[in-house]
Specification:
It is a single chain. With 491 residues, the chain is an alpha+beta fold. It has three domains: 2-89 and 122-285, BirA Bifunctional Protein, domain 2 (2-Layer Sandwich), CATH 3.30.930.10; 302-398, Rossmann fold (3-Layer(aba) Sandwich); 418-488, Translation Initiation Factor IF3. 35% of the residues lie in helices and 28% in strands. It has 14 helices and 27 strands. An eleven-stranded mixed sheet has the order 3-9-10-16-13-12-11-24-27-23-22, sandwiched between helices. The longest helix has 26 residues, at 391-416.
Length: 491
């Protein structure tokens, strides 16, 4: 099975594609730039979605749904927003097809042109703030804490499964507040929710920071982000939370009556994560044998494979396994007993290893006699014989150990790939030879930021929230700098 996967050292990009497809997460579709999320991949997304949804609701948010189509005039109301998304928009111009009278097959009916063209949702700020205008009249209507789970379309030119597709699944929170301070607090709170989820459930350490002006979300005053590091030394933006100020309230004339009977514009935030997180999981944890999934969000945590000769041995093993399965389910552990006859145990072992199941159990007739089972953990590939007595509790603890080990391993890798550099020669050398995050001084200008990007393809990933504010000199221009920022090449 492992021979079907290109090694990371040989071709990291192909390795990633091999894992996504052969690990059963997704497949290419007939539509350019779009993907089919397969059952294994969608089950993983469901686990991530369900946990995030609980966390959103625990912070007072509720779910709603808004239209997929947005009138083109809505986007033009916020200048920075439309400029940021204009090149990625899919546009609906007609609403009917017909048979070509000249025998050319099915054509667009020229008489069915829309009075106003519709944009297929790239993000929902405009349609939502047009709606909020009807929902908000006074301070009593605030705050509005709404999230929606949806799909969006951004017509990407270069696509990669999960990481960058023309259509993807995500959630987008859109909140409205009476004060600037409350909106900023919301922005930071949701960033913390994302960081907690990614670290605790995805076992992936992140750096919390703020984007530079040129990297922030179109239409935002500030964009906060969490940045993660992949095994090839490239960064990946894992989530963003935006302080929108009053920009969208002004664009859509959303005002409220304050406690002092004054009319003021509403303050806004938006925040989101997407199925790109699945791509992050693959790249941060997996190996040349297949996926490695964190137990807390793995669709299947434990698989049990019987090894037998004849129906009598199979029945004996099945009888014992039924007890184990019952105990595991009572502990909230997802488990599968694969007693199918369509493949040999060795093939099953390779298949579940490829799909990243955290723990595999093999039980044969001799194991029953000795009252033991062979336990194989996916993260280290270690195997050991464990007594059947107390096995369920052992596995519960093992899953917790695997989750922590995955996080610690990823954190150790990340921390060993954060390098302070103090001049341009060091910057270029470390970027090419080591990769990862480079902590360096920058003079604060967009011109220097763009020039560094042109020269090296490295961008400022964030200004860390817990930043080193010591003075220094910009690595490129030598001009004064008040703080270090994190550069990296990124997805």
């Amino acid at each position: 099975m492992s021979k079907e996967i290109t090694s990371r050292q040989e071709d990291y990009s192909q390795w990633y594609n091999d894992l996504v497809i052969k690990g059963g997460l997704a497949d290419y579709s007939a539509v350019r730039g779009c993907m089919v999320i397969k059952p294994h991949g969608f089950a993983l997304w469901e686990n991530m979605r369900d946990q995030l949804d609980k966390m959103f609701k625990a912070t007072g948010h509720v779910n709603a749904y808004f239209p997929l189509f947005i009138p083109k005039s809505f986007l033009s109301k916020e200048a920075a927003h439309v400029e940021g998304f204009a090149k990625e928009c899919a546009v609906v111009t007609h609403y009917r097809l017909k048979n070509d009278p000249n025998g050319g097959g099915i054509i667009v009916d020229p008489e069915a042109k829309l009075e106003e063209e519709l944009i297929v949702r790239p993000t929902s700020e405009t349609i939502i703030w047009n709606t909020y205008k009807d929902w908000i009249q006074s301070y009593r209507d605030l705050p509005i804490l709404v999230n929606q789970w949806a799909n969006v379309v951004r017509w990407e030119m270069r696509t990669r499964l999960f990481l960058r597709t023309a259509e993807f699944l995500w959630q987008e929170g859109h909140t409205a507040h009476a004060t600037r301070e409350e909106a900023i607090e919301e922005t930071r709170k949701m960033l913390d929710v994302y960081a907690e989820f990614v670290e605790e459930y995805m076992a992936l350490p992140v750096i919390k920071g703020i984007k530079t002006e040129s990297e922030r979300f179109a239409g935002a005053e500030d964009t906060y982000c969490i940045e993660a590091l992949m095994q090839d030394g490239k960064a990946l933006q894992a989530g963003t939370s935006h302080f929108l100020g009053q920009n969208f309230a002004r664009a859509f004339d959303v005002k409220f009556l304050t406690r002092e009977n004054k009319l003021e514009f509403v303050w806004a935030t938006s925040w989101g994560v997407s199925t790109r997180l699945i791509g992050a999981l693959v790249m941060a944890h997996s190996d040349d044998q297949g996926l490695i999934l964190p137990p807390k969000i793995a669709p299947l945590q434990v698989v049990i494979v019987p090894i037998y000769k004849g129906d009598e041995q199979k029945a004996m093993i099945a009888n014992k396994v039924s007890e184990i399965v019952k105990e595991l389910k009572e502990l909230g552990i997802s488990v599968k007993f694969d007693d199918s006859d369509n493949s040999r145990p060795g093939w099953k072992f390779a298949e579940y290893e490829m799909k990243g199941v955290p723990v595999r159990i093999a039980i044969g007739a001799r194991d029953l006699e000795n009252n033991v089972a062979e336990i194989a953990r996916r993260d280290t590939r270690e195997k050991k014989s464990v007594p059947l007595e107390g096995l369920a509790i052992y596995l519960k603890n093992l899953l917790e150990e695997i989750q922590l080990n995955m996080f610690n391993k990823a954190r150790e890798f990340r921390d060993s790939h954060i390098t302070e550099v103090n001049n341009w020669t060091e910057f270029e050398r470390c970027l090419d030879e080591k990769g990862g995050f480079l902590s360096a001084h920058w003079d604060g200008t967009a011109e220097t930021e763009e020039l560094i990007k042109e020269k090296t393809k490295a961008t400022i990933r964030c200004i860390p929230l817990n930043n080193n504010t010591s003075a220094g000199a910009c690595i490129l221009t030598g001009k004064p700098s008040t703080q270090r920022v994190l550069f990296a090449r990124a997805y």
